[in-house]
Amino acid sequence: MRFFVAMFSHETNTFSTLRTGRPQFEAHDLRYGGEILEVYRGTGTCLGGMVDAATARGVALLPSVAASASPAGPVTKDVYEEVTERIVADVRRAGRLDGVLLDLHGAMVPEGAEDGEGPLLAAVRDVVGPGVPIGVTLDFHANVSDEMVARATLLHGYKTYPHVDMAERGREAAERLLEVAAGRLRPTVAFRRPPLLPPIAGQLTARGPMRRLHDLAARMEREPGVATISIFAGFPLADIRDAGLSVYVATHDDQALADRLADELVATAWEHRREFLHTAVPVREAVARALAADGRPVVLADIADNVGGGASGDGTEVLRELLRAGAREATVACIWDPAAAAECARAGAGATVTLDVGGKVDDRHGAPLRLTGRVRAVTDGRFVFRGPMNRGLEGRLGTTAVLEVEGVKVILISLRRQTLDPEIVRAAGIDPLGEKILAVKSTVHYRAAFEPIAHAIIEVDGPGLSSSNLARFAFSRVRRPIFPLDDL
Q1: Is 142 found in the same domain as 31?
Q2: What is the pLDDT of residue 187?
Q3: CA proximity to 117, closest of 103, 128, 104, 127
């Protein structure tokens, strides 16, 4: 068996002013050919799962390109066309194929369009024809379009948020594709998209409505004839027509079964729609609670300034309040500010500097802070994820500096990255277990690795473009009416 494999992934926040071009992909991940197999093999990623499953089954993989960038504004037309054309050209050059494996996101919005993945899948389908199966992994937050469903043979969405099952989904995609290629599986698909736009912080799968839905789906997947079920919570901060929750059920040659199960899942999601609504703690109250706590570390989750949701990552309001309240033994991880990091690096470890920090991207994340502090450390920003998310994969933050101001340590980074692993803190020379307060810019992903070490977690209702208060955003393109934007 010969399978083609590629990745093209971006989660687009259409409210962001940060364009996502080639430099943003280069800063995060842009690899070609055999390097993909070496870098991703054995890692806790979809590509890692695909590679490991294919190797175990004796499948020859033909790697093309792996491209991903931190969530931000729309993907520029030039890089979208470049990566898409590279994938399509490589498929055309690959010769005889038994299957195609694509690791996509599902919420990519290119400039001038709303759906990044559907046209890509259509282009690949045009080359391989109707007889070659295409297996696709999609992010839990995918805004699934009708064209994605029509052009792919099977879609496989993550079942966890935080996303700790990416490798499992990659393995599943490879194994199901083998079954289709061998003629043992003839997928029949039911797809539903109810008028439901769940806020991000209400989507976690450990409890609440998503836990209920995934428990139901797990029972359904044990029924004879069911191939795979995905419940996509959707990415609400992509203001496009098809944003929101969707349900995908694939069975073995049984359309009636697929339809029945999909309808039951949608009915359950709708019945419990109000449970997706989410509230957090105002900044001043959150910091006061953290200071009053009797254990350590207390994690302050700055959920509205999450790079992983397309926010700038340079918000200052939590830091401002920590300093105002006289916090000590506190770390803010991280503030994206290449200029401030570079200024600290030029001064060197041990130097005292006065500089403006954060608040430089837009007016949605707090104003810049004029700070005087000591440069505690300067590093190259390289680390390895310990997981459970992205386990074994190398991460890069670019030039990184730790600025200590009146007992508060601020990790300044040059490449935008969500703080979802304590290794980011450790790589800056700080022991997260020794801190009284850890302020992390993340909405839910931080829970996978920080929750086991946290004395307490407080979700902060600060400003930012990843807020779960959807009333803060001026939606214009999403289909209406839709809950909770409309009282349905």
Answers
A1: yes
A2: 98
A3: 104
In this prediction, the residues of the chain whose per-residue pLDDT falls under 70 are none
The count of structural domains within the chain is 2
Dihedral angle computed from the Cα positions of residues 265, 125, 51 and 41, in that order, rounded to the nearest 10 degrees: -100
Do 233 and 140 share a structural domain?
Answer: yes
Residue 354 structural domain: 281-467
In terms of domains, do 232 and 300 share one?
no
- Work out the angle between the directed axes of helices 283-292 and 317-324 (0-180°, nearest 10): 50
CATH label of the domain that carries residue 143 = 3.40.50.2300
Q: Which residues pair with 411 in a beta bridge?
A: 333, 402
Please count the helices (runs of H) and the strands (runs of E) in the chain.
Answer: 14, 20
Residue 249: the pLDDT is 98
The overall pTM is greater than 0.90 = yes
Q: Are residues 405 and 342 in the same domain?
A: yes
Contact indicator for 160, 187 with CB cutoff of 8 Å: no
For residue 105, the tally of other CB atoms under 10 A from its CB is: 23
Domain final position from 246, 276, 306: 276
Instruction: Give CA–CA dist 297/434, Å, rounded.
Output: 7
pLDDT digits (tens, 9 = 90+) for 339-360: 999 999 999 999 999 999 999 9
Cβ contact 75:20 at 8 Å:
yes
Residue-wise pLDDT tens digits, 58-111: 999 999 999 999 999 999 999 999 999 999 999 999 999 999 999 999 999 999
The answer to whether residues 67 and 127 belong to one domain is yes
Structure tokens at 127: 């080359």
Residues 341 and 259 in one domain: no
Same domain, 263 and 289: no
Phi, psi of 448, deg, nearest 5? -60, -45
In angstroms, rounded to a whole number, what is the distance separating the alpha carbons of residues 281 and 245?
A: 26
Averaged pLDDT of the chain: 97
